[in-house]
Design brief:
By secondary structure, the chain is an alpha+beta fold. The protein has helices at about 25-40, 125-140, 150-165; strands spanning about 45-50, 60, 70-80, 85-90, 95-105, 105-115, 120-125, 180. The protein is about 25% helix and about 30% strand. The longest helix has 17 residues, at about 150-165. The radius of gyration is 16 Å and the shape is globular. A hairpin with a 2-residue loop joins β4 and β5. The protein has a 5-stranded antiparallel beta sheet with strand order 1-2-3-6-7. A 3-stranded antiparallel beta sheet has the order 5-4-8. The chain has 3 helices and 8 strands, in the order αβββββββααβ.
């Protein structure tokens, strides 16, 4: 299977808002499989379709140690957010090698479509909650760097642009896209 190309910040295509999936058909199933393959190859734990220049509301996640608990969400929607917050150090396949602490709601309730096209709902907390919120942000044209100060975001952007010009951005991809701050 071919790996999809992951877009890197500050690529403007990362700011495009993803459109809802109208039909869960074989094309969508194929996209999900390619996204999982790409996420595992890139050593990530989450990937939004927007990050691979597919502007559909699809995310894939696997936060398990053994990389054997695939979760995919089609047209994900956060139904509720807890008032308690959690801070975790986040990174991103689209911002390789950079990590910053981001505060997000600790628990969420989410709905999404399954492969059968039926809506399912579930609750998430901890790393899974953070990952889902991070990936849904991508579908809405937002990156984790939007949750940090403008000064830090501008520094990261300048470093990435410089690394791209030098051709050394690829070497920063050896780190996982999230690290727990706990």
């Amino acid at each position: 299977m071919d790996k999809l190309k992951v877009l890197h910040f500050p690529d403007p295509r990362l700011r495009k808002i993803a459109q809802p999936v109208e039909n869960v058909d074989q094309d969508i199933k194929d996209i999900i499989e390619k996204m999982f393959f790409t996420m595992y190859e890139e050593k990530g734990i989450g990937l939004a379709a927007t990050q691979v220049n597919i502007h559909k509301r699809i995310i894939v996640i696997d936060v398990s140690e053994n990389k054997d608990e695939k979760i995919f969400l089609i047209n994900p929607e956060i139904l509720s957010l807890s008032e308690d917050k959690d801070s975790m150090e986040e990174g991103c396949l689209s911002v390789p090698g950079f990590f910053e602490t981001v505060e997000r709601p600790k628990k969420i309730r989410v709905s999404s479509l399954g492969l059968d096209g039926e809506t399912k709902e579930f609750e998430a907390s901890g790393l899974l909650s953070t990952c889902i919120q991070h990936e849904i942000d991508h579908l809405n044209g937002k990156l984790f760097v939007d949750h940090i100060s403008a000064l830090k975001r501008n520094r990261i952007e300048k470093k990435i642009v410089k690394l791209k010009k030098e051709g050394s951005l690829a070497s920063r991809k050896d780190t996982p896209n999230y690290k727990s701050a706990v």
